[in-house]
UniProtKB/TrEMBL annotation:
<dbReference type="Pfam" id="PF09534">
    <property type="entry name" value="Trp_oprn_chp"/>
</dbReference>
<keyword id="KW-1133">Transmembrane helix</keyword>
<dbReference type="InterPro" id="IPR019051">
    <property type="entry name" value="Trp_biosyn_TM_oprn/chp"/>
</dbReference>
<protein>
    <submittedName>
        <fullName>Trp biosynthesis-associated membrane protein</fullName>
    </submittedName>
</protein>
<feature type="transmembrane region" description="Helical">
    <location>
        <begin position="64"/>
        <end position="82"/>
    </location>
</feature>
<feature type="compositionally biased region" description="Basic and acidic residues">
    <location>
        <begin position="183"/>
        <end position="200"/>
    </location>
</feature>
<feature type="transmembrane region" description="Helical">
    <location>
        <begin position="89"/>
        <end position="107"/>
    </location>
</feature>
<feature type="region of interest" description="Disordered">
    <location>
        <begin position="172"/>
        <end position="214"/>
    </location>
</feature>
<feature type="transmembrane region" description="Helical">
    <location>
        <begin position="138"/>
        <end position="160"/>
    </location>
</feature>
<keyword id="KW-0472">Membrane</keyword>
<keyword id="KW-0812">Transmembrane</keyword>
Length: 214
């Protein structure tokens, strides 16, 4: 027998939430993985007899936003499980913005925009340098672009559909039942504590007063 429409909508909302959380977390992990790799080899030519100077640019050096966006995306994936309403909308926008930053960072490096980062390498810049060549390993900035696209899609999913999704805290509140019954050992402990306070544990508690005294 098929479930009710409400159950179907609830299941669909949970699946969408799971997709958004996994998308943001995966995008963050891909970004951090790409940022730790070698993105470019920089070689500076110098007049003879001076030898050329070479250096390596990691993703974190060539595009610092990649590391920052990756960390934010991992945190946002956790936040999506706990927030609702306007908070979830804000997290979704943040995820999409981080995705845009990743796409821009990766595309800029693929287009050759690493001159500023290359100039910070030791020996690569200076009056003795006659020419500089940069060889970009396209796979890692390309991975950052792919992570950015995934983050943008996850963020847009949150913005457009997140209002109907459940929150982790609400589920826990709904599942919380009445307090478990107290055991005989617990009641015995309560009796000893009452004796320590000088009270008689066999006496019933006083009834609450009603009305005002004359």
């Amino acid at each position: 027998m098929s479930g009710s429409p409400d159950e179907g909508r609830s299941g669909g909302a949970r699946r969408e939430l799971t997709a958004a959380v996994v998308g943001a977390a995966l995008a963050g992990a891909l970004a951090l993985s790409a940022a730790s790799q070698r993105w470019a080899e920089v070689t500076a030519e110098r007049p003879p007899p001076l030898p050329p100077v070479s250096g390596t640019l990691t993703g974190g050096a060539a595009a610092p936003l990649v590391t920052a966006a990756g960390l934010v995306l991992l945190a946002a994936a956790v936040a999506l499980l706990a927030v609702r309403g306007a908070g979830r909308l804000a997290v979704g926008l943040l995820v999409a913005i981080c995705g845009g930053a990743l796409v821009w960072s990766g595309a800029r490096v693929l287009a050759g925009g690493v001159a500023d980062a290359a100039a910070d390498l030791p020996g690569v810049s200076g009056t003795s340098v006659t020419a500089t060549t940069v060889e970009v390993a396209a796979v890692w900035p390309g991975l950052a672009v792919a992570a950015g696209v995934l983050a943008v899609l996850a963020g847009l999913l949150v913005v457009l559909r997140g209002a109907a999704w459940p929150a982790m805290g609400r589920r826990y509140e709904r599942d919380a039942g009445p307090a478990p019954p107290r055991s005989a050992e617990d009641r015995t402990d309560d009796a000893w504590k009452a004796l320590d306070r000088g009270e008689d544990p066999t006496e019933p508690p006083p009834a609450p007063r009603s009305g005002r005294s004359a």
